[in-house]
Design a protein that fits this description.
TIM Barrel; 8-stranded parallel β-barrel; 46% helix
Length: 257
């Protein structure tokens, strides 16, 4: 069975001191929860102190973005080599990067390949906007995003995909478990068409979009959903711990069947 993954995307929230306090408030509980991988993705400014706090624990660290070049005259950017000394994961292609900053599928593809070259594990985000969803274009949009992001990349189970319907992010309106499960099952099929069936079975695909402790069960009980990329709820220690614990319990129960 694939080990579930719960990743917290803190977005542009928390000062360094606030980030340290948030980790302090939940580290022991997260570290003591087995059967699930845990990753925290704070703003860049907190990566160094949090990497020290998390050292020796079972909680991983991830960045929220990166550039695709190793070094150079790219003012304000962060390179894969810089991140590789601090963290294990990096979120790429988040809808907020696509819509607010104009990131294209081609740019995301360059980042995915650069991350893998640097031995970072990409959390590749894909998802459709509300008009695409209501127009019946979910599979077309999401399928194209996956294919273009993986174009030219070698198959690997180090890649994680996060399906985040844009209309559900931060809206309080999550997809149903059945909706998310169906789309993620479709995504797994697309990965299979690009990389082959073994890779499609091995990679982890998460759901993201208004995930809370009250609805996580609905998603991780779906056969193709391997966890969640959590936004707002990851900024609340008790809520994030609850999401991780529930995921671990469901995975353990499934493993025993």
């Amino acid at each position: 069975m694939r080990i579930p993954l719960i990743a917290g995307n803190w977005k542009m929230n928390t000062t360094v001191s606030e980030a340290e306090q948030l980790v302090y408030d939940m580290l022991d509980q997260l570290d003591n929860t087995e059967k699930v991988d845990k990753v925290l993705c704070p703003p860049f400014v907190s990566l160094v102190p949090l990497s020290m706090m998390l050292q020796g624990s079972s909680v991983g660290l991830g960045a929220q973005n990166m550039f695709f070049e190793r070094a150079g005259a790219y003012t304000g950017e962060i390179s894969p080599a810089m991140l590789a000394e601090l963290c294990e994961f990096v979120i790429l292609g988040h809808s907020e990067r696509r819509w607010y900053f104009g990131e294209t599928d081609e740019l995301v593809c360059k980042k995915v390949k650069a991350a893998l070259t640097a031995k970072l594990k990409p959390i590749l985000c894909v998802g459709e906007r509300l008009d695409d969803n209501e127009g019946g274009r979910t599979e077309q949009v999401v399928g194209d995003q996956v294919k273009r992001a993986l174009d030219g990349a070698d198959p690997t189970d180090e890649l994680v995909i996060a399906y985040e319907p844009v209309w559900a992010i931060g809206s309080g309106k999550a997809a149903t478990g059945a909706q998310a499960g169906a789309t993620i099952g479709f995504i797994r099929g697309v990965v299979g068409s690009v990389w082959g069936a073994p890779s499609s079975r091995a990679i982890r695909i998460l759901y993201g979009g208004s995930v809370t402790g009250n609805n996580i069960d609905e998603f991780v009980t779906q056969a193709d959903i391997d966890g969640a990329l959590v936004g707002g709820a990851s900024l609340k220690a008790d809520e994030f711990v609850a999401i991780v614990r529930q995921t671990a319990a469901i995975h353990e129960e499934a493993a025993q069947k």
